[in-house]
């Protein structure tokens, strides 16, 4: 009987110890679970806060990029307008004044047989200077804004540009056009002309090219400009000057795609693919 009481006491002791351990484990699990919930809640709140900040910064960057694109477009429009104005003033004012001066010098030269040799020599010198000034003003006006771009269209302006570059450099330029409509919007004409002008300038000045080809083709998909040269080439991933960035911005502004293919020693090819312009025969 005494042994039975001892066994019962031992069982009660074991049950008490087990209950104590169980209570301790329960409290530990509750604390761990609560801590985990607290950490999870804090982590979730932190992640949500970071996500809100990231989204706000993304929208801010997108808005800033849009504002920069709008500013770039306004600057391009202002630049073209200023070029057109200066070109017209040079042609109408200074050009005509120099032309009138050449006429007067010509009339004096017609009667120079009765003048002293020194005076005749001075007249010839004045005529030579006036002719050079007249030609320089004409060239500057055409480079700023060729009147034929407005009067005769894109094809004539590109052919003139190719002849001028060939005449003033060591590079021979070939211009090829296919089905280019005459009623292109001014934005398209200016974009294609400026891209061609910049590409030929870079090829003649920086790549030591001997030959360059300009192709403009119209199709149902839009208008494609292709300018290639056989110069020394470059790495487009490492060389990206202001001129190339300006070309890309002009194309993107019209919703087009701009690309450069070049390797050192293998020339360069600049391609611009523009969507069909609205409200012109180019979209038919």
UniProtKB/TrEMBL annotation:
* Subcellular location(s) per record: Cytoplasm
State the UniProt keywords alphabetically. Answer: 4Fe-4S, Cytoplasm, Iron, Iron-sulfur, Kinase, Membrane, Metal-binding, Transferase, Transmembrane, Transmembrane helix, Two-component regulatory system
SUPFAM superfamilies per the UniProt record, alphabetical: ATPase domain of HSP90 chaperone/DNA topoisomerase II/histidine kinase
Transmembrane regions: 28-48
Q: Which domain of life is it from?
A: Bacteria
Cross-referenced PROSITE patterns: HIS_KIN
Molecular function terms, GO-annotated = 4 iron, 4 sulfur cluster binding; metal ion binding; phosphorelay sensor kinase activity; protein dimerization activity
Q: What is its cofactor?
A: [4Fe-4S] cluster
Catalytic reaction list: ATP + protein L-histidine = ADP + protein N-phospho-L-histidine
Gene Ontology cellular-component terms for this entry are: cytoplasm; membrane
**InterPro entries from the UniProt entry:** HATPase_C_sf, HATPase_dom, His_kinase_dom, Sensor_HK_TwoCompSys, Sig_transdc_His_kin-like_C, Sig_transdc_His_kin_sub3_dim/P
Q: What is its EC number?
A: 2.7.13.3
Per the database record, which ranges form the Histidine kinase domain? 89-278
Among PANTHER family, the record links this protein to:
NITRATE/NITRITE SENSOR PROTEIN NARX-RELATED (PTHR24421), SIGNAL TRANSDUCTION HISTIDINE-PROTEIN KINASE_PHOSPHATASE UHPB (PTHR24421:SF58)
The entry's function note states:
Member of the two-component regulatory system NreB/NreC involved in the control of dissimilatory nitrate/nitrite reduction in response to oxygen. NreB functions as a direct oxygen sensor histidine kinase which is autophosphorylated, in the absence of oxygen, probably at the conserved histidine residue, and transfers its phosphate group probably to a conserved aspartate residue of NreC. NreB/NreC activates the expression of the nitrate (narGHJI) and nitrite (nir) reductase operons, as well as the putative nitrate transporter gene narT.
Identification of the protein by name? Oxygen sensor histidine kinase NreB
């Amino acid at each position: 009987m005494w042994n039975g009481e001892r066994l019962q006491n031992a069982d009660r002791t074991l049950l008490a110890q087990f209950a104590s351990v169980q209570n301790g484990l329960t409290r530990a699990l509750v604390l761990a679970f609560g801590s985990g919930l607290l950490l999870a809640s804090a982590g979730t709140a932190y992640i949500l806060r970071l996500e809100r900040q990231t989204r706000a910064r993304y929208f801010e960057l997108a808005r800033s990029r849009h504002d920069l694109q709008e500013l770039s477009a306004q600057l391009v429009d202002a630049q073209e307008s200023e070029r057109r104005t200066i070109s017209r003033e040079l042609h109408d004012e200074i050009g005509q004044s120099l032309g009138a001066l050449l006429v007067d010098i010509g009339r004096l030269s017609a009667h120079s047989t009765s003048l002293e040799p020194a005076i005749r020599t001075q007249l010839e010198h004045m005529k030579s200077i006036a002719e050079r000034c007249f030609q320089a003003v004409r060239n500057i006006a055409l480079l700023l804004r060729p009147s034929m771009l407005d009067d005769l269209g894109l094809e004539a302006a590109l052919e003139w540009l190719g002849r001028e570059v060939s005449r003033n450099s060591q590079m021979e330029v070939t211009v090829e056009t296919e089905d280019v409509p005459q009623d292109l919007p001014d934005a398209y004409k200016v974009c294609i002309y400026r891209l061609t002008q910049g590409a030929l300038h870079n090829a003649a000045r920086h790549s030591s090219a001997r030959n360059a080809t300009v192709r403009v083709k119209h199709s149902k998909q839009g208008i494609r400009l292709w300018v290639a040269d056989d110069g020394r080439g470059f790495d487009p991933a490492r060389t990206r000057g202001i001129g190339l960035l300006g070309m890309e911005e002009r194309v993107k502004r019209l919703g087009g795609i701009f690309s450069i293919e070049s390797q050192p020693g293998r020339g360069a090819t600049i391609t611009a693919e523009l969507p069909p312009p609205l409200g012109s025969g180019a979209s038919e």
